[in-house]
Amino acid sequence: MKKVVLALSLVLALAGAAAAADVEGKIQSVDASERAIVLDNGTKLWLAEGVAMDNLKEGAQVKASYEERDGKNVATSVSVSQ
After folding, report:
1. Beta bridge partners of 38
2. Residue whose C-alpha is closest to residue 59's, from 38, 35, 32, 31
3. pLDDT tens-digit profile of 3-50?
């Protein structure tokens, strides 16, 4: 029984890790009310709680890490490139 639980835990952990991704692009639009940005490649990212929106402006080049949550790409970190 312990082996089954351990194997299931490992599979779930790997599935969660596989859902994380990175993306780069230029911000096409910012929606402060939804806490979301759209990149020039069409990718829409909703910002996780704790991710600052202060320097996220249209035209800024960004790098973001995100994961899928409830069908949405939720950015866990966003950094503006210089």
Report:
1. 29, 44
2. 38
3. 544 454 545 555 555 468 999 999 999 999 999 999 999 999 999 999
Class of domain 21-80: mainly beta
Secondary-structure breakdown of the chain: helix, strand, coil percentages, each rounded to the nearest 5: 20, 45, 35
Residue ranges covered by each domain of the chain: 21-80
**Single-letter amino acid code for the residue at 47:** L
Give the C-alpha separation, 22 to 45, whole Å: 11
Phi, psi of 80 (to 5 degrees): -90, 130
With beta carbons less than 8 A apart as the criterion, state whether 31 and 57 touch: no
Q: Quick one: which of 9, 6, 66, 2 has its CA closest to 36?
A: 66
